[in-house]
Specification:
single chain; 123 residues; mainly beta; 4-stranded antiparallel β-sheet; 0% helix
Length: 123
């Protein structure tokens, strides 16, 4: 059974940083692309970052220069480092995976999602 468990969310002031983690199990993690998406209240889910099985990555223009995605295949974990956070980054953040080892940039490619972790940026 595929399981994705996010952690690391919380309340942070504008300009602050957070590091999200997603622990994966139930599949061969090192052979799958992974992604981070977010969903703010009343808005559609948005893919913010994706990474392939060997670390190639892509970042959404909305967070480029502030967010970084990485993975540790030995720990079956994918990370999202978020810096210079803004109030508009407030959302539930989800990690996901699909059936490909390559970078997956379309939400429809993702088959499994975690339960999400709340990130709130507010003063």
């Amino acid at each position: 059974e595929v399981q994705l468990v996010e952690s690391g969310g919380g309340l942070v002031t504008p300009g602050g940083s957070l590091r999200l983690s997603c622990a994966a199990s139930g599949f061969i993690f090192s052979d799958k692309g992974m992604g981070w998406a977010r969903q703010a209240p009343g808005k559609e889910r948005e893919l913010v970052a994706a990474i392939n099985w060997i670390g190639g990555k892509t970042i959404s223009d909305s967070v480029k220069g502030r967010f970084t995605i990485s993975r540790d295949n030995a720990k079956n974990t994918v990370y999202l480092e978020m810096n210079s956070l803004k109030p508009e980054d407030t959302a539930v953040y989800y990690c996901g995976t699909g059936r490909s080892r390559y970078i997956q940039t379309d939400l429809s490619e993702y088959v499994y999602w975690g339960q999400g972790t709340q990130v709130t940026v507010s003063s």
